[in-house]
Amino acid sequence: MIAIIDYDAGNIKSLQFALDKLKIESVLTKDLQTIREAKAIILPGVGAFKDAMDSLNKLGMTEVLREEAANGKPLLGICLGMQLFYETSYEDGEWQGIGLLKGSVNRIPDMVKVPHMGWNTLQKHKESPLFDKISDDSYVYFVHSYAIGGSYDSDTLVASSEYGTTIPAIVQKGNVTGMQFHPEKSGEVGLQLLKNYGELIS
Prior knowledge:
Elements: E1 2-5, H1 12-21, E2 26-29, H2 32-37, E3 40-43, H3 49-58, H4 61-70, E4 75-78, H5 80-84, E5 86-89, E6 95-96, E7 101-107, E8 116-121, E9 123-124, E10 139-144, E11 146-149, E12 157-162, E13 166-173, E14 176-179, H6 187-201
Parallel strand pairs: 1-2, 1-3, 3-4, 4-14, 5-7
Antiparallel strand pairs: 5-6, 7-11, 8-10, 9-12, 12-13, 13-14
């Protein structure tokens, strides 16, 4: 069972629908014990970084996520959920994240239209089981104005997209994985990525 964190900042319905279609068992939950007992955790997210962190802190989830990550449980962050895994965000101020990954969340350069919204290709940086049955330069769906940057650990970069700058699109460090795009809205490629993730953690 995968616990999908419900903290009122999620793209929940389409994600649950995608997992159901793949026959990957999941539960949407605010319950800390359910999160602790799950075999894996997905942190989805849309909206503002500060509001999301305030909600996680209020619900007591920030520490639980740190504990479960330290215990080796697989965690997947999607879109804002991935950004929350990092140390700091500079979205309308300076805010502390969960701190599972090194780096910061910064606004996409204004040389391109912001938000970065629509389909863009994935460029692989390293081989990963996540890419099983996925061809090079596959398209996935993005909606975001901020991206990972600063002194992030480039060894964690699995795939990127180009949009005014190099956008870290998939990152992975041990049991912690992030996808900046929305796999649940990325058609067959997104479903395959979620299927591969499900097989990776089973």
